Amino acid sequence: MGGQLIEPEQAGDDDVVLSWEGRVVVAVRLPHLSDSLERILADLGRRHGKPLAELDRRTKQTVVRNLEARGAFTLRHGVETVAAALGVSRFTIYNYLNRE
Fold first, then answer.
1. How many CA atoms lie within 13 A of 27 on its CB side?
2. Is residue 39 within 8 Å of residue 2, measured between CB atoms?
3. In the predicted model, is pLDDT for residue 76 greater than 70?
4. 3-state DSSP call for residue 78?
5. Which tens digit of pLDDT belongs to each residue from 37-50?
6. CA–CA dist 86, 23 (Å, integer)
7. The model's pTM
8. Among candidates 2, 6, 1, which has minimal Cα distance to 28?
């Protein structure tokens, strides 16, 4: 997801502080969700071994369903971001989402 390790004393209210055997060892600063979507899309491209826009239609549909399950489309501009990565229109993304 692209989290950043920080010293526990630098942790803010939104950071996650991790303990080991009762001792605080590190804090994790999580990225904004929109940054996470970009990282997820890049990871999917690596997993498929090629740019997402080059995937076949069926695989793109599977990618969209998986992203929906992960909440990608609850983000502002999520549909547009995914559509651009897949090389399709927003309308196509909505069609994929409504297929079931």
1. 13
2. yes
3. yes
4. helix
5. 888 899 899 999 99
6. 45
7. 0.68
8. 6
Position of tokens 């997801």? 1
Residue that has been written with the tokens 């055997």 in this structure: 21
**CA–CA distances in Å: residue 96 to residues 25, 65, 68, 76, 86:** 44, 8, 10, 19, 12
Fill in the amino acid letter for 53.
A
How many residues are recorded in the chain? 100
Q: Which of 64, 50, 56, 51 lies closest to 92 in space, CA to CA?
A: 64
Find tokens 């999580």 and name the residue: 30
Report CA-CA distances (Å) from 45 to 11, 52, 58, 61, 66. 32, 5, 15, 14, 14
